[in-house]
Design goal:
Layout: E1 44-45, E2 48-49, E3 52-54, E4 64-70, E5 76-77, E6 80-81, E7 87-90, E8 97-100, E9 108-113, E10 116-129, E11 139-147, E12 154-156, E13 170-179, E14 184-197, H1 201-207, H2 225-236, E15 254-257, E16 275-281, E17 286-289, H3 297-303, E18 323-328
Antiparallel strand pairs: 1-2, 3-14, 4-5, 4-9, 6-7, 7-8, 9-10, 10-11, 11-12, 13-14, 15-18, 16-17, 16-18
């Protein structure tokens, strides 16, 4: 069984946002603030964000295009993937993989924005980052860093750990992009690859097994768009389905899904903590809400176009849903 926890838009697998690999802070998604201002945590090189890149060189939402991978001999190669989350380089016929994994350490990821070339160096590869589901496959993560304004001042491409250039916190999600405002899957398209930092909901959804690159549960297909959307809503605490996230860094939360691939430890098992029910989730919003993780029920009600029922007041177990989230009792 996996212990679930979450810092602010966390996923599931431990208890406090500072445990293990699942402890990434929730600063990528738009979070509820009294100012209403969103903050983001997408990877970037010198102010060139690459939350997603087109393998064919189309510009992303920030006008950034992928040039390719530059080897130590200064030769540019097309960036490809193994269909899951590993960067690979093929031969000219694109039938045989020549380089992958640790063999790409020292290579540069080369981008272009406004006619300027930008690059970050792959300095570390980890093919065994822990999943957050009970028996999920390990994730592949990379360190990609770039040199700042001063020589020797290297920065991580993930803004939340920019000052820790050697933190392996970037993973690839092949074949889809995300709407970070509405907290939903955007494109499902094999030409696009999402680069997600561990503080992002996309990373966490992948760690839970909800992504295009992995068959879900006992099916022979990935989680559906609706299942993925429900996961993003739950992680980001988008109770109202409006894109407003009622969560902050280091906010503990636990969860379990209806498929039984993410479960909560029971009394007497390692990682168990007492909890109270927070909310029940489908792909649009919370079906019901009892105990918001930040305790800000009034703020939630002020945003929601329709008042959410208390979970004790409806028979939610008979309603189609993907997740049930719980608030640890302190």
């Amino acid at each position: 069984m996996s212990a679930n926890f979450a810092p602010a838009l966390p996923l599931s697998i431990a208890l406090f946002a500072v445990l293990a690999a699942a402890c990434a802070p929730d600063t990528e998604e738009q979070m509820f603030r009294d100012t209403g201002q969103p903050t983001f945590n997408s990877p970037e090189i010198d102010d060139a964000p690459f939350p997603e890149l087109s393998l064919s060189g189309q510009p992303n939402s920030a006008g950034v295009t992928l040039v390719g991978l530059r080897d130590p001999g200064n030769v540019i190669h097309p960036l490809r993937t193994n269909g899951r989350d590993e960067i690979v380089v093929y031969d000219a016929s694109e039938t045989t993989i020549l380089y992958r994994g640790a063999n790409l350490v020292g290579w540069d990821l080369v981008l272009e924005k406004d006619g300027d070339e930008l690059s970050g160096t792959i300095t570390h590869y980890n093919g065994d980052a822990p999943a957050w589901s009970d028996e999920g496959r390990p994730l592949t993560t990379y360190v990609i860093k770039f040199e700042g304004d001063e020589p020797g001042n290297f920065k991580n491409v993930c803004p939340d750990v920019m000052g820790s250039p050697d933190a392996p916190v970037v993973t690839l999600i092949v074949g889809e992009t995300y709407d970070r405002v509405l907290k939903k899957v955007d494109l499902i398209d094999g030409d696009w690859v999402t680069f997600a930092c561990s503080g992002q909901a996309a990373y966490k959804a992948k760690a839970l097994g909800y992504e295009q690159g992995e068959f879900f549960a006992d099916t022979m297909a990935p989680a559906t768009r609706a299942q993925q959307d429900a996961t993003l809503k739950m992680i980001t605490a988008d109770f109202c389905g409006t894109g407003d996230s009622f969560t902050e860094e280091n906010t503990p939360i636990r969860w379990e899904n209806t498929a039984g691939t993410v479960t909560l430890p029971q009394p007497g098992e390692p990682g168990y903590v007492p909890t109270i029910l927070e909310a029940v989730w489908n792909d649009e919003r919370a079906l019901c809400l009892s105990n918001p993780r930040r305790g800000d029920l009034g703020k939630v009600e002020a945003i929601c176009p329709n008042l959410l029922p208390h979970c004790d007041d409806i028979d939610w177990a008979t309603e189609p849903h993907e997740w049930v989230s719980y608030k640890p009792v302190q």
